[in-house]
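Example record

The entry below shows one chain as it appears in the dataset: sequence first, then structure tokens.
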Amino acid sequence: MSIEILAPGTSEAASSDVVVAAGAPVHVFLFRADEERVDHNCTCPVFIQKPDLSWAQTTWTLNRDNPTRVIVGAGTYQIRRSGNITNATGIATG
């Protein structure tokens, strides 16, 4: 079952926190409400929370060519949607 962590939209926004426990990978993915492909310029970087509670960008992104990712490293993550997209795009886990 999928859980929406960021409602579809076109503005810059961050997902709800995604908590990944050791040994319990989490699948995250982009989706459009109309079920079409994600815009070619949609790039959503993945951030991890550091011990001082600040956020650091990882090398991972979700985009048109890679709209899904399995996060396996324990930690708290956020995925941030850029504001340069035309079609409403959301982010979910599942």
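Notes for this example: The chain has no helices and nine strands. The first strand starts at residue 3 and ends at 9.
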